[in-house]
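Why does residue order matter? Because the sequence determines the fold. Keep that principle in mind as you read this record.
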Amino acid sequence: MSALPSPLPLVPAIARRFDGLDLDERDRLLLLAVAVCLDDALDPLIEFDGRSAVEIAGGPVGERLTLHAGRVRFVDARLAIWVRATTCAAGTAGVHTRLSVIFDRCGDQVGADWHRARASLEGSPETAPELTRIARRLVTAGHADRALVLAREAAEHATGPERDEARLIAGSSSLSAGLMADAAAWLGSLYPRGVERCRLEALGGLFVAQAFTSGVVPHADLRTMRPRTGERDDWRSWARAAAFAAFLCAERGERREMRAWLDALRDAAMPAGAERELRDPIVALSWLILGERDIEQVAGRGPLTGGMLEALQAGMDGDIDRGLQLLAEDDTAVAPETDPLVPGYERSPVVRAYRAVVEVLLLVWRGDIGLARARLVHAALAFPVALPFAGLGVVLARRLDLAVLGELGPFARALTTSLPVGVRIDVLVDRAIRSFLAGEFDDAACTIRLWVDLGSPQTAIAVPGLDELALLAGDRPDPVVQIEPPEMARAERLRTRIATADDRQWRSEREEVHEAARTLHSPFARARVESMLGTRHAIRDDHVAARIHFQYAERLFELSGATAWARAIRNRLDRLDAREGSVVPAADPLSVCRRAWSFSLTARELEVAMRAVNGAGNRDIAGALHLSVRTVEVHLGRVFTKLDVRSRVELTVLAHHTARHL
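Structure:
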């Protein structure tokens, strides 16, 4: 999360690569000019060298360069590192001086000031204001990398208030480029003695950088950081900082801190003139992330407080296609609408990372698992997708890899290692899913039980997990308030009904549940319900119905792109057809049955039932449990009624079917 050093160091491998390279002085100076130039335009370098493009391309140095369409680049980029490292400081300064004159003559003030500053060995304060001005313009236009180069150079030469301005732009550029450690260092350097205007303008970005670097929102004294003047711009900067802090706290589920920052935002919004454009959308977005549905629908502006907020609201209302359409409309706009939260940074990598994660989330909610994974992998190559929503992008990457591959792929592993120390994700669910899909049901059940014992930690924004296994094992996760579409909640209720209904209820409800499953539009959500229906029928030894539901599940998983889930269902179908072996390898073959029955039977009824299944007579059970024979008979009668069996034989058969198919 820091920029690479510039220039890059000469490592031994590069030194060996060009050891013995023989260049005449003119060619060497040309290569050095190409290496240090601010961009790759060919014309200034032709004027610098004095030869035509044809002469350069036809000479010995032409083998080292690619000249095309008015641009020049190294054939091997490592040569730029070697030529800079093997040239003395005076020689490099001389090349910069010559280039500054050329750019000045061409009317390129940015290039001239840049090379003049680089040529100075003692500092060149007069170059800093222009470099800073251009850097600010570049970063708001979305060219964060080049803006950072200019602002960093300006900060090295500026003095007084101009240095604070350069540091502010360097920090903003780093933040826009996703270089959070650099952003925290640059913006933090303005405290405590920087110019107040720069400090207030930097505060929101500093909160973001520190939260993304450490994983936690920094604590701040709201009273001491308020503006001391009545300047409208200062109050707007303070309002924006409070908005960032509230949003970051909401991402991490910190309700009390979020409320404090929202109060600060409300106080600042009036003198800043930002009640409707900033305060209202941030209040709505913050509470929405915490799962509050009863919030006023607010129409903001720009990619975050407008498009992203409206897309999430549409998803929670069940109109996922509308949410995706809103994101697509913003992305195809020639000039994005100004966002009051991130003015000038609407196309920055961090903002685009947030929108990419929301798009992937909506695709997952719609059941397009394969497409969601492809979009996330594509976005991860360009944007810092591990940062938004306290690691939601990493959770999505891991779940999607498991759904498609059956294991964590390289992108998911790489994103996981990039998480800050303060961000935690529920890796137990990921392990359980991997085991479940691999057919290791006992390990999956134990892992889910441990997850439930630890409080069933989940993201504030719902991502499909493995709640069905917890329900089948008799472990009900603690209820949490999450952002989720209505259909996702409806599918979860159906899975709960399938797992918890006793046999008498099941006979009357199974057709109703089956019909309700057919109303689910997400192929992934319906496939999970169909697989549970197949399991329930298999336990009752109704193999015809079980096979039908498993086949539905397999085809729906394939349709959604969840190929690993489809393979797991195919394995179940194969085992069902073979009618052999235990689905759950365990030391106690009836351990899964015990967990499943514990949801329907009392503790005493469960003990009586399990001893009866193992062949003990009523007198033996009574003696072992210190009960009367009559009490054992009463408990067995209740067990028969709840499990819808008529004899010990049927109870034993049901127990072994339950253990085999769960």
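The chain is about 65% helix and 0% strand.
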